Amino acid sequence: MLATSAPTTTTSLPSLHPLTYSAIPAPSLNPSFLSFSSSSSSSSSSSSSSYSYLSPLSFGLHSKTHVRINPKLKGLRVSCSKSEPLKVMISGAPASGKGTQCELIVQKFGLVHISTGDLLRDEVSSGTEIGNKAKEFMNAGKLVPDEIVTAMVTARLSRQDAKEKGWLLDGYPRSFAQAQTLEELNIRPDIYIVLDVPDEILIDRCVGRRLDPETGKIYHVKNFPPDSDEIKARLVTRADDTEEKVKSRLEIYKKNAAAISSTYTSITNKIDGNRSKEIIFKDIDSLLSQLQKDKTAKSVKPVFQAESRLNLASSSRDKWRGIPTRLNNVPHSREIRNYFYDDVLQATERAVNDGRTRLKVEINIPELNPEMDVYRIGTLMELVRVIALSFADDGKCVKVCVQGSMGEGALAGMPLQLAGTRKILEFMDWGDYGAMGTFIKIGSIGAKEVDEQDDMFILVAPQNAVGNCIIDDLKAMTDAAGNRPVILINPRLKDLPGSSGIMQTMGRDKRLEYAASFESCYFFRLLYYAGTQYPIMGAIRMTYPSVYELHKRVDEPSGKEKYIPLSTFTARPTIDEINDAFLGKPRNKDKKASGIWGFLSGVF
Ligand code: AP5
């Protein structure tokens, strides 16, 4: 019953970060936030005069110059670099002194202070649409919805001054979902400072806080009164600085703090915030000064890289560590995501290096399975970025393509899964070496998108929509691409019951034949009991040019789980073959799909 050669697995599975299955809502990169815009009249450094989502973000070594010597010479790079600016996050309970310390940090280090509280208050006082929406949440001491705050923060971070001078992010992220969004966009601070102050002190600080609307300076009626009567006369109190609201804000802070910190454990510095502001700043100053020194030291050397410059995929190439566990814990940890990106990347590279040109990647871990409610477009984008940047690193010009609107008139539209995708791609961090616009380009699907200088094409989840078929455009594109590689990532090219517009130029058989002409270079699918998505019973994995491996998930007495190899297949196994392997029966090709795996017949 067991096939040819069993795949090699090791018993030491990667250690993965445990996450609670349902306590944490799965964050999603809601594409809708990309479409809203606003303006603010404030001139403060933390305010944004307009939120533009069109300019590509680059949060890295923006001041570096990347000189490409020979694009075809693998991995050889020379970088002349200035010191990379600091990226700092400051967190702490309400009134822990974040704003006060930020004033001092900005004075000394010249970072761009981005305070979500200040940005929101600017919107409120300007009476903008965002301000009106945010006001009710702020006044109630609640968090403003993620899509509003996230759009403001990412837009502000993308502005030139933040890229050049570095940034000091104050008040964001305030939830695990916000932290995950930043991770997905590859926005990582160098340091995460947490100010620690006892609750009873916090309430007194809030209630006694006063703001100078002219200078933005923060005062306290007892601790830091203003120097002159003139200033005193114009001070204002924040609407959310009542004892009752502070308590609510504090509660929300405590509920989220641990989950956010888990994202930044390795760079967290907790500081006792119940001391004089000068002493607190001394601690912060020495941390940041040291960081700055380290960065300067790093940047003086020219960089000759023999390996991937972006380090987005893990360095564990060619050492497959078995299927990672806890795949039903969502959101997936960074380790799990990187694990799969790495696995897919290796398979894709092997296939392209072997001269394969029509390829598809199908991976349905829960975050990449649109049938599940934990699907995350950010994870799909990260995967695409890892693959595209790796090929770009090999000197290839890669076009990343997302299908645009299909159909006409009332029938025009795009599959929900892809809404906003192109915008996200455009404003993602594409690395520090100017790859975007040179070695990476973003395009749509169709013959017109194929330019002479393009070396290969990565198509993001091309799919048919009800009433519209992408295959004509796809076929025209692959014809124009000739023998240049075209890689489909999670395509969905099955027939959909369509309105009259579908299949105008090609028949059904031809369409299916065309869809099948793409060779699998990576396949990963979790197996569940019929009709359920829990528990995971096993997995199928195939990486080019290897066989399909069937694994069974087993619970160990220690409470841990592991995957054990059951069987291998030279072609994608049928439902009967999977059933038989699980039941320990010899293979029976004539049997009908049935049993616990019967439901999968629709999938295969
Ligand atoms: P935000 O403005 O960020 O409020 P906060 O986090 O509650 O923090 P505070 O501004 O109240 O305090 P702070 O730590 O800056 O302390 P400060 O230096 O002023 O956010 C406001 C609202 O916006 C939120 O409630 C939410 O609705 C919304 N929002 C913001 N970000 C969001 C996000 N990411 N997602 C969703 N919603 C979001 O100091 C306080 C007082 O103490 C001052 O009077 C000061 O003079 C005094 N003081 C400071 N240091 C000391 C010291 N060492 N000793 C004695 N007194 C001190």
TrEMBL record:
Family statement drawn from the similarity comment of this UniProt entry: Belongs to the adenylate kinase family.
Principal cellular location given in the protein's record: plastid
The protein's name: adenylate kinase
Its EC number(s): 2.7.4.3
Any one of the GO CC terms: chloroplast
Lineage: Eukaryota, Viridiplantae, Streptophyta, Embryophyta, Tracheophyta
Enzyme category, top tier: transferase
Organism: Herrania umbratica
Enzymatic reactions: AMP + ATP = 2 ADP
